[in-house]
């Protein structure tokens, strides 16, 4: 089964390059995931193709209007069922590896990216199943958060990473365990030595040397 991810964005171009580079590109080439980016403006049916408006109650900044989101989301929902409709927002649940693991089991995921001051809250109320924050700071738009979610989820789909890059022993896949630092040749560089335990080739010792706990 190929996972499908739909992203709705007011600035779709900002997603093009990252979604078509490196492992995300490979995942799509290998048919492990299909990623569709929908331009919110294509669903603005008034003659000015307006997607934003001033917020009720005043205040600076513009809000993304509800109608283009409703049109686009309802069209997608008519075509298939979504396991998760994710709204990235600074007020959401903190994103972590456990959530990435959960999302990686989905067949269909939709991500609604906010922009400017955000989106009309009726979109969130009506459709969002998962409100996700990627950290305690404010981004200019949900696109970067969408990329964080997509990248962390897609690399977990079996067959996306090669065996040698397996995600299973990555940091945070086993509770709070963080991988210890890696080294490659040369064994000594500018007087800095690779730890003996990693050079010994003793597999048991080596694995123990690979575990450490969070530094901060
Ligand atoms: N006015 C909003 C507020 O104060 O909460 C911030 C809007 S922000 C400039 C525009 C969009 O970026 C948001 O609608 C959301 O989709 C996204 N965003 C910003 N910070 C985020 C974060 N920490 N995690 C996830 N998404 C975020």
Please give a quick description of this structure.
The protein has helices at residues 13-19, 22-29, 66-79, 97-103, 121-127, 142-154, 196-199, 203-209, and strands at 3-9, 33-39, 52-53, 63-64, 84-94, 108-112, 130-133, 178-179, 188-189, 192-193, 211-212. With 216 residues, it is α/β, with parallel strands linked by helices.
CATH class of the largest domain: Alpha Beta
Question: Unreliable stretches, pLDDT < 50, 5 or more residues?
Answer: none
- Kindly report how far apart the N and C termini lie: 39 Å
Strand order of the largest sheet: 2-1-6-5-7
Unique ligands: S-adenosylmethionine
Strand % is 15-25%
Helix content: 25-40%
Number of domains: 2
**Helix/strand structural class:** alpha/beta
- Order of helical and strand elements: EHHEEEHEHEHEHEEEHHE
CATH homology-level superfamily of the largest domain: SPOUT methyltransferase, trefoil knot domain
Number of helices: 8
Global outline:
elongated
Count of individual beta strands: 11
Biggest β-sheet description: 5 strands, parallel
Oligomer: single chain
* Overall mean confidence score, pLDDT: 92
* CATH fold name of the largest domain: Alpha/beta knot
> What is the CATH-assigned architecture of the largest domain?
3-Layer(aba) Sandwich
EC number: 2.1.1.228
Organism: Melioribacter roseus (strain DSM 23840 / JCM 17771 / VKM B-2668 / P3M-2)
Binding site for S-adenosyl-L-methionine: 114, 134-139
Protein name: tRNA (guanine-N(1)-)-methyltransferase
